[in-house]
Amino acid sequence: MANIDTNANTEITADEVRVIDPEGENIGVKPLADALEMARDHELDLVEVAPNAEPPVAKIMDFGKYKYEKQKSRQGSKSNQVETKTVQVKINTGEHDLQTKAEQASGWLEDGNRVRLELYLRGRAKGKSREFHRERMDRFLKFVTADYTITQEPEKGPKGLNMMLEPA
Question: Which domains does the chain show, CATH number per domain?
């Protein structure tokens, strides 16, 4: 939840710290006891923001607010990650099923996610020509309404052929 390796107030182990006031001004290098007293005067916490600096940098701020903002920024960076979604179709998948799966894939592409199209092959379907397999994949692609680029041409996978689509 919170950034565990951030020290505040009495958790700071350095004898001297470079102090930054709540407005962001550099006050200078102070003994830890003086810096803690300054933080108490402002009714805030002394938070170690750069523990590896020499001397460590500590800022006078609200530690609870700092932890909350760190957590939110971490969550925000997770939500911006691109995912790879998978759509599986078979050689004899019906037109309506292809349309439904293509609508779902279009939504994923519009959201900025990659889509892996898997043409699932079983039995004698594996022995059919590459052109036949490509035509079956193109049957699906004609229903995709979102703009896309093919970043990975169809290649053989363990269960059939795989193709990767990315938003254009």
Answer: 9-78 (3.10.20.80), 84-167 (3.30.110.10)
